[in-house]
Amino acid sequence: MKAVRVRELGEPKDVLRVEDVEPPRPGPGQVLVRVRAAAVNFPDALLCRGGYQVRPPLPFTPGLELCAEVVETGEGVTGVRAGERVLGSAELPTGAFAEYALMRADAVYPAPAALTDPEAASLFIGYQTGWFALHRRAGLREGETVLVHAAAGGVGSAAIQLAKAAGARVVGVVGGADKAKVARELGADVVVDRRTEDFVQVVKEFTGGRGADVVFDPVGGDSFTRSTKCIAFEGRILVIGFASGTIPTPGLNHALIKNYSLVGLHWGLYRDRAPQVIAECHEQLADLAERGLVKPLVSETLPLDRLADGVQRLADGSTIGRLVYVPAP
């Protein structure tokens, strides 16, 4: 089969190469799947650079999130049948940027019929992250205001839809007019182009001086620092990631005097510590998808030989929505 592999660490455009390799075989508790679509995530770029918390041995195939068809099951696997259309995350080092991949049998979920393969491939990591952040960690309530950074990106676009589905008001922060248009189409009540506007002032005006009840921040750096200037009393700042490349060092005295919470989310920890909650979340997301309340924003589909460019563009922050690898027919 053909697969994209990393043999040395570096920038995605330099280290992702298409190779011919033997298809993997499922071990105990694993499932072999034929990849129908695989979404590109920021951690795929970090994997190439060696900067992700998981560091598979070289060489490896990235690709963490996919929609696929079950081909074969390993020893001890029950409840999963060949031919099923499923979604979930791939098992490194045999990731989803290939024609076939491996998945953990206990982390395979039915793909909603309402979604296309590229959309279903994009429903897992980003939407699970958004759901866990807003509902499990921040306890989002109807009528609250959510400030979403990188609102036209993969995780940010999911957060907008999930917040609106929960009855919240959304202020989306983006960089550029094209991304602002996308955030509005996704349902954001107010969109701020950070290149020309001050989101702190906009949030204060929109909320009558109260501030945002929840800040959804996958960016870090200055986005986090300035968010502390417009967080509401008893607000919650969700620390999702650091796409800016800068990890903030907050002054905790400020959280004390303004009575807000800093709430971390590493969604991957739930896979081993509370997998049943991931299954429950998937049921919620599938229901929202079937009712048309969430729909992943797929901006571009890519063949295998263009994945290196796509992962690099995502790493550079120049993409909108989700880039998705779709194998040749």
TrEMBL record:
Entry-linked Pfam families: ADH_N (PF08240), ADH_zinc_N (PF00107)
GO molecular function: oxidoreductase activity; zinc ion binding
Entry-linked SUPFAM superfamilies: GroES-like, NAD(P)-binding Rossmann-fold domains
Domain Enoyl reductase (ER): 13-325
InterPro entries referenced in this protein's UniProt entry, alphabetically: ADH-like_C (IPR013149), ADH-like_N (IPR013154), ER (IPR020843), GroES-like_sf (IPR011032), NAD(P)-bd_dom_sf (IPR036291), Quin_OxRdtase/zeta-crystal_CS (IPR002364), Zn-ADH-like_protein (IPR051397)
PANTHER family attached to this UniProt entry: QUINONE OXIDOREDUCTASE-LIKE PROTEIN 2 (PTHR43677:SF4), SHORT-CHAIN DEHYDROGENASE/REDUCTASE (PTHR43677)
UniProt protein name: NADPH2:quinone reductase
Organism expressing this protein natively: Marinactinospora thermotolerans DSM 45154
